[in-house]
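#structure-requests
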Amino acid sequence: MGSLVVSGLTKKYKTLTAVKNVDMSILEGQFIALLGPNGSGKTTIINMLTGLIQPTEGTIQLDGQKVGTYEYRKKFGVVFQNSVLDSDLTVEQNLKIRTGMYSLKSNAWLNKLLDWFSLRPILKQKYGLLSGGQRRRVDIVRALIHKPQILVLDEPSTGLDIQTRKVIWKVIHEIREVTGMTVILTTHYLEETEQADFVFVMDHGRIIVKDSMEELRKKYAKYRLTITTNEASKLVEEVKDTYLSISEEYNHVIIQIDSTQEVINFLSTYRRYIEDFECEKDDMNTIFLTLTGKDIR
């Protein structure tokens, strides 16, 4: 297994350019988050990577295989936003059809997937009668049946409750550890990206940021320090020239601070004002807003 390499990828629809000159290099085994506001080009890129649509310009290669060939396509498993399974067939029938597409010689891998995703109790039920969480687990198993090199998850947990999302992600990360599988994720739930190895942020068809999660946190995540004090106005007056991002709300002063050391220094210097305090570090939602100026939704 090797890298997925994208060079100069562009997709045009008459007067609209949906994706503009995108370069990406995704290493074997990485967990990749592809983020952007609605209409930024994420789904168009996913559709080009998986061979559903052809790029106007640029190249895509995986282990020397070009997009569109059978050898290339079988390296991918895709969980689409909308299911591609038959609602009138049972879970077992749907998975049997999918298994037949790959002429698999053994059911050992499928049996592991059924256990991992707890599908055995619902194998005889019609897919269309399942709950949203059950259908999504079946969708993921369908995508994994042929043991793909790369699993693409296009907003896989939209509409699911937080407990179901956690269960699904726990299993996916276990499978990654066992197989070394690469995962490419688009999502509206940015907490799902916290374990990503690398992040691409898109806007207006371009990649505006590409970096490791660790570096994104270092560069863009700041601390929100909330001070409870009976002398809020005095504290604001004393620190307003030093800290540009500061606000006063009743008996609270809220300050944005760059580092843990600065937080410690602030608490030590102004302890005479402090009745209580709370400190929070920016999460991916705040980092995304900083990068794009837009909410992910």
